[in-house]
Amino acid sequence: MLGLRAFRAFALGDRPGRNQATRELIAQPGLVPATIALEAAVFVDDLAGSERFARLLVSGTHSCELRGLGRRMLAQAQLARGRPGSARARLATPTPCDAAASLELRSLYGALPFVPVRPRELKAVLRALKEWEAPAARDRWEEESGWPAPETVRLYGLGLVSLRLGDSLQAHNAAIALARRVDSSAAGEVAWSFSRSLRARLALARGHRAEALAYLEAARWERSAGRSPAEASDRFLRAELLLQLGRVDEAIGWYRSIAERSSYELVYLAPSQFRLGQIYDRRGDRARAVGYYRRFRELWRNPEPEVRGMLVQADRRLRALAAAE
């Protein structure tokens, strides 16, 4: 009921209710990671609200775990608003108890196709991945919930960042190591999904789009749903591959489904709206194209310079479509 009350307050813009729900959540830290309230921004696309909630967690005198969760939420919200530099800065200074989770996001965000990353920044992430010593054992809750082992997460990050740096061999070796960690457990299923995900990216790096899509289709993320933010990355990549292969109607379905299930997907929401604008623009559907371009502009209202190119393109097309009325 706490989660439902929080969702209702966020969805209706009920400021007193939202503040009360936030206080209740903070008073019960054990509920925070699982509650629907943290996903409220997904359902109402309220990135500003998500950022405000994250700042409350970061700035308060809360537990290390809560501050770490708030820091990661804040990084996600900032990246979802077109501010990758701010997001990277947040993740580069984690709390002592969320270093692994922050490093996982740094690896994923370093592989984003729509965000330029300097090689020195990628090398810093790669160095952190190589130096990080995964704990020998996980706690009982992680084991029972099927979360991937820290070493599984580390190997996947190594593969992603290595491939972004052009080191296909290290990415290939990471995919092999992940395949060796596959078993019948829930955590083993995540290792399978990770290994197929890396294989897909390796195929794409060779220019083999159909092969890459086949690997993603075989990743079995439906069995590992909710156990890694990497699932959202693969969903966006799947839409991109379908578009590139000319399967446009299928791509539309995947782009439209972004940010319907998890806060991790918010990062891909604006780029998906931009792609949908381009698709309907090419089809001559002016009304839909304008709607998606405008939604993209709302999400990335004031992006950082490194990703501003997409906003410039959207503005140019909006002016052209307005002039053609």
Provide a count of the helices: 19
State the major sheet: none
Q: For the terminal residues, how far apart are their CA atoms? A: 49 Å
H/E topology pattern? HHHHHHHHHHHHHHHHHHH
Shape category: globular
Helix content percent band: 55-70%
Q: What's the alpha carbon Rg, rounded to whole Å? A: 20 Å
Give the class-level CATH name of the domain at 246-325.
Answer: Mainly Alpha
CATH architecture of the domain at 246-325: Up-down Bundle
Mean pLDDT: 84
Strand fraction equals under 5%
Look up the CATH topology of the domain at 246-325. Methane Monooxygenase Hydroxylase, Chain G, domain 1
Q: Any low-confidence stretches, pLDDT <50, length ≥5?
A: 33-38, 40-44
Task: Report the count of strand segments.
Answer: 0
- Category by helix and strand content: mainly alpha
List keywords for this structure.
single chain; 325 residues; Methane Monooxygenase Hydroxylase, Chain G, domain 1; 19 helices
Give an account of the 3D structure.
The protein is mostly helical and 325 residues long. The chain has a domain at 246-325: Methane Monooxygenase Hydroxylase, Chain G, domain 1 (Up-down Bundle). Helices cover 70% and strands 0% of the residues. It has 19 helices and no strands. Mean pLDDT is 84; it is low at 33-38 and 40-44.
